[in-house]
Design a protein that fits this description.
Bound molecules: nicotinamide-adenine-dinucleotide
Strand order of the largest sheet: 14-13-12-11-7-10-9-8-15
Shape: globular
Helix content: 25-40%
Structural class: alpha/beta
Distance between the termini: 40 Å
Number of helices: 11
Length: about 350
Amino acid sequence: MTDKAVKLAVIGAGAMGQNHIRFIQEEIGSELAAIADAYEGAKAIADKAGVPFYQDPTKMMDEVELDGIIVVTPNHLHLPIAREAIKRGIPVLVEKPISDDLEDAKKFAEECKEAKVPVLVGQHRRYNPFVNAAKQTIDSGELGKLTVASFHYMIYKEDAYFDVEWRRKKGAGPILVNLVHDVDLLRYLIGEVDAVQALSSSAARGFETEDSAVVNVHFKSGALASMTLSDTTASPWNWEATAREDAQYRPFDADAYFIGGTRGSLSLPRLQHFSYDGEPSWHKPLQMDIKPVDPQLPHKMQLKHFIQVILKKEEPIVTPEDNVKTLETLMAIKLASETGELVSLG
Ligand SMILES: NC(=O)c1ccc[n+]([C@@H]2O[C@H](COP(=O)([O-])OP(=O)(O)OC[C@H]3O[C@@H](n4cnc5c(N)ncnc54)[C@H](O)[C@@H]3O)[C@@H](O)[C@H]2O)c1
């Protein structure tokens, strides 16, 4: 394949799908070729973009010449649609989480390996340059042996958000809806998870689903982490308010993650790196450095990567197999919060 703009279709033109449509239109390496959405009203979006509209994604895949598709439907529809694309040899970018069904996600990961059609999972924070600068610092050993970390997702979703019934029901709380991003970065930055404990509460809103939770994590390396999450807490200590990835959130000069090791510690996204000159000691003055990083919008970086994957110049950074591990960790956290037990993985 030559390097002319790759032809992409978006399946699911809802809130996030419309962002992907805009990213494709703004990226010189890609061209929007079609849109599919089960809802007839979405045709207006395709008309405005000047591309064909389909209510049936498989019909679209059969009729339009495509180099790749982006699946942005509700989670339970990700895999049936991705399987149709793989059958036709079309590379896929599938939104996170890969599925809401762990067993089916595992099966799909195996199918992808056999089919040899590239599938990228949309964990866009992996492309954030501040995250990758942190990863470099950690991997270089500058923090020493990782000991403890704390990850915070404390945010207030407006009350009207919960006017939709399913958002008040079991399973719709922040553990399954929001924590996927933080768990993905936890694994990426610190390593694979061995076991989790969790407590949840619905005392603030009184819904069937949790509004707040705390999680303890034990990593295979022996490191430990705690995660504090709540969608009913008025605070800036969450990724949205600190990472400057999305203009709809007022940015705060604060951090959401704190990662510590025997020789230093690091905050994210501000990248404040604390260490001692020479041997560490609590009686010596700590010094603080900040690595300079050029900000980039992670969703746009993810699209550039997907284009390179289609052109066979790069391998997918987040594979289905990788995302299964994030899903496994999330499900373990959910189970731990329901049973109060320590839940081991794998
Ligand atoms: N990475 C991110 O930053 C991010 C942010 C938000 C949402 N998401 C993910 O994006 C996905 C969609 O979320 P959303 O908030 O845009 O949801 P949404 O409900 O706003 O949009 C989903 C769209 O899919 C369409 N749809 C439903 N069934 C379909 C089918 N069978 N074929 C084609 N289209 C169908 C719906 O009509 C709707 O337009 C989810 O997987 C979510 O986790 C990712």
